[in-house]
Amino acid sequence: MLGILKKTMTPAELGYGILHVSDEILFMDSVRSLATRFDGYFGDPDLPSGFMNKFLERKDVSDTVRGLHHLLFTHCAIQAACTLFDEGMRKAITHGAMQSFTKPHDSYDMGRTYTTLESAYSGKHGFDRRVGPLTNSDAQFTWLPNPNVGVINAKYLIESFVIPNLKNSQTFIDDFKGYSATVFEAVVTVCLTIDYILTSFEIS
Q: Is there a contact between 156 and 80 (Cβ–Cβ < 8 Å)?
């Protein structure tokens, strides 16, 4: 035997592993997707040094609000990537990942978020009239059952987070292609992370 047997892990452990490997990238994408929707982002002298959080603070986006966006952004990315698996597996992986957050925001409801996204992925969720028509033909997946999950995630985030929490919500709608592109990239990150983990492990 040449070590071809893989170690096993539960779906919840895979979820934890996904978050452990990709959380830093997802966090930076989450912050960047917010910061780039504000005037003054481009050309700000602090940003090349990685101070996007400081920039958002100057735009009155508090740490609490940024934290909620990161939770929802991460949840969306993981659940969308896990549409590769059947529904039971997808739910266990997503919950395993999100339970790794020790102090989730009070407004974050893991079960409700999961259910709403499942409904949206299957075309059953009725989006806000301002959000429903939004599209991005460049943010499509060829390897997932629903190629449009990245766009759906972006629409969900605008509806559930941006509109209730940010004064410049119209900017996210006007620049939907820009926002949804970053949301799309987050799903790609999780897909690559899953592939990486499953080269050494199999799900039991």
A: no
